[in-house]
Amino acid sequence: MAQERLPSRSASGLTSLSLRGADLGSAGAIVQLEPKTDSKPRKRRKNTKQVSNPSTQGCPISIRPDILLDRIRRVKCDETKPQCMRCTNTGRKCDGYPHAAALDQDKSHSPGNFPVPASTSAHETPAPVLEFPSADPILLRHSLLDFQGTQIEHRYLDFFHSQTAPSLAGHFDGYFWTTIVPQIGCSEASVRHAMIALGSFHESFSLEEMGMTDSGLQFALRQYNKAIRDLTFSKKLREENVAAVLTTCILFICLDLLRGNLKQAVDHITGGIRILNAHQMSISNYLNPKVPTSFEMDFIGIFSRLIVQGNLCGYPLPPLQLASTNTVSDLDIMQGPFITIDDARKSLGDIMMFAMPYIQTCMSLKFLPDKECLESSKATRERILNQLEVWRKRMDLFIVEKYPDGKHEDMGIYTLFSGYQNSAIWTKIVIYEEECAWDGEIECFREMVSLARSVTDNSSNKTRKGPYSLVGLPRRSPKRPLWRDAITFEMGILPHLYFTAVRCRDSKLRREAIKLLGLARPRREGFWDARILIKVAKRVVEIEEDGLSGEGLPVEEKRVHDTYILDECQNSSRMQKIVIITKREGEWNFKEEMIPL
């Protein structure tokens, strides 16, 4: 529907990703306003509003739009040596290392701070400091629910805060979802309504109903439309608060992915990329590049991972035009352990982004052979494999430093290694036309299944207590309901298990992968729905092993070269249309099928 899309004009007139004090509603943030250069000292306003109580945190604060906002989050020190990464990235003065304070006196170029205008004088009157409610989860929840709304709106906003936000992060740091999004939602109606709609949809999936009642669906769609209305008619929001616009856009993407509306999700992703690119172009140029702040990096990371997901599922997306980022050559030479697990995830994502055109080219060469293009692709192939090997070595060093005894149950590490194996297999084999080339990677498939098993063994038993406001029980009551993670915004193990099921022709191993698809939690990871993947994988196995006796491998002409899951039926609960591609006697065959779900 046309009304569901982000207005294209929202990409214009963007000047700063920083949030105004009223827009941020930052629980626990200390906001410092940089004064303009003036020969006369600025008189203090008598009517300045200050937020000192969480219950008043929705009050508007008058801030001139030409004043740069330096947003610093109050976060716990992660005690990373030699400097706390979380404090360094957010611009917070770290209290964990008293002797390291002198090492970073100049904060003007810190990634967590917006640059001070050149005209600012050191002799000017210090900027006023506004304190907002703490980022403590309990106080943030109190601030988030402090708005005029119906009981059911409060119910699902609370559900989003306690259940949906942690689930969306998957096995990685959920600070963006559990803190940043609620902070913005405290003061921006479009974000709040999108959170309520997503919480309502998520509850039905958490209950394993895979659907909603008519009244529940109508409520969620009304909240969705309210978010669109607030975003469309708030010109001031679109022009001054890019972060709120991008956050609303990301929540819209979550909603569409959860509903199975992949085309609509791709439209929102494309719109978000355009907004982010326009912002990057407005604040930086070739002669004056600007290092993205940690807050901007949150959005850059999310859209980068969405681009990878979309391309893997056959949805080409425009690239991000970043003003300052690691170059491709950095992936070849960077040494030493990763600093954090998120650092490792970003590096692997960069490699996957670089590898995507190569994989797409090789897939097209199957149908339109080109010897010259094939030769150039071989050089690219070796470079990607080298980057993956560098990544593996750095990851091994990271694990040795973090877990000296070699024992850990970090599901994020298992997930990343599974993605590494998938990328390595694809890079090595996709250049060959024959499907039998995949048979040489059975041991790599076996390792990938083993990694996925470690994740499913942990996640299938993982539960989280439901929000107490839903049932009116005390917070520590043992009667509070338990919820399992049903969705995540991030790519986890589902695509890797599906890839194993359709490309690995070892009968036992591919069936183990299908079994794990059924056990995996969450059931939906970004673009991937386990329910659909299981049915498609079983159909591929059925086609390839028809008439096969014993433990042998299918002959080349019986193998499926590729499958496409078509959009038309992805929001249906009963049937799904797919395209199966095979090659018989040198001729390509494209066959559409409807499979029951």
Automatic annotation (TrEMBL):
One Pfam entry name: Fungal_trans_2
Disordered: annotated segments: 25-61
Keywords in alphabetical order: DNA-binding, Metal-binding, Nucleus, Transcription, Transcription regulation, Zinc
Bias-annotated ranges (Polar residues): 49-59
Occurrences of domain Zn(2)-C6 fungal-type (ranges): 71-98
PANTHER family xref list: ASPERCRYPTIN BIOSYNTHESIS CLUSTER-SPECIFIC TRANSCRIPTION REGULATOR ATNN-RELATED
UniProt protein name: Zn(2)-C6 fungal-type domain-containing protein
Natural source organism: Coleophoma crateriformis
